[in-house]
Amino acid sequence: MGVYHEGSRAVQDRVGVRDLADHVGRSVGPGIRPVAAAFLELQPLLVLGAADPATGRVWASPLTGTPGFVRATGPHRVSVASRPPLTDPLATALATLGTPVGTLTLDPRTRRRMRLNGRAEPTARGFAIEADRVFSNCPKYLQKREAYELLPDRMPQAPRHATELTPTQAEFIEAADTFFLATVHPDGADTSHRGGNPGFVRVASPTELTWLDYPGNAMFLTLGNLVADPRAGLLLLDWTTGTTLQLTGEARTEFAPDGRRTVHFTVQEAVESPSAVPLRWSAPEYSPANPEPAR
After folding, report:
1. How far is Cα 113 from Cα 95, in angstroms, rounded to an integer?
2. DSSP of 233-244, one letter per residue?
3. Which CATH architecture has domain 6-285?
């Protein structure tokens, strides 16, 4: 399987960065290098993206555990000693052999992040992923958080489902500095990160969000996936309380004559889960790369 499919190539050509994308794409491969394996074992948080095989909807979900719960068990294989609760939208997907899954491991302490995509295989303790794409991203737009606490006594509350955003959820989104974005394509799934100063995501209505696509690594994996398949899932995390907001729907990219790219996301379902993540992070230091949000 190549690094890029027709969707990514279409966006690269439109923006005029195909040569740069080819150069960056040489860092992508199926192997998990020792430095990547060591990075994985230090992390308490893993974000996963996949399509629910029952509904076809795409979701992004968090998994947490004591560092070491995610580890490389071979040159192309990762084992995860955890699984989502049965109430999570991806519980069925990760219990199904061969589900395409995209993962993102992010360390706010060092502003490092790593993506590993492949296919899931249920195991006795959780699941494994046979990797077909492994690569790191630059720290651009990633907020620094110096430390975290693991709160084992924090108990998840029942999730709340809706087909549109409440005013409180809209305020939460517009105050966010980070979200995770799951997309799919004919060969698999991918999970990426989006960051910026609060206000970089706008709530246009109870069923629509918008954000600018800031300049990145020129690969255009996410926007390319949306060209091929508009389904997408968003995960927003309250880094203090552990509450999560998962959104599923469809996204499209608007290309303006001045080169700006705006993503429009239509919400089909929202799942808010209070106290879902037993981690409490310190206050953010915003990335110096973050543009000021448009007013």
Report:
1. 25
2. EEEEE-TTT--E
3. Roll (2.30)
**Which of 249, 243, 240 has the alpha carbon at shortest distance from 270?**
249
In the numeric block, which tokens belong to residue 137? 């991203």
Q: What are phi and psi of 141, to 5 degrees?
A: 65, 20
Give the pLDDT score at 295: 61
SS3 labels along 65-87:
CCCCCEEEEECCEEEECCCCCCC
pTM over 0.90: yes
Answer whether 183's CB lies under 8 Å from 8's CB.
no
Taking alpha carbons only, the member of 146, 53, 148, 160 closest to residue 99 is: 53
Distance of CA 106 to the CA centre of its chain: 10
- How do the domains of the chain map onto residue ranges? 6-285
How many Å apart are CA 14 and CA 37, to the nearest integer?
A: 36
Structure tokens at 28: 């992508």
Q: Which are the contacts of 52, defined by CB distance < 8 A and separation ≥ 6?
A: 58, 59, 89, 90, 92, 93
Average pLDDT score, the chain:
95
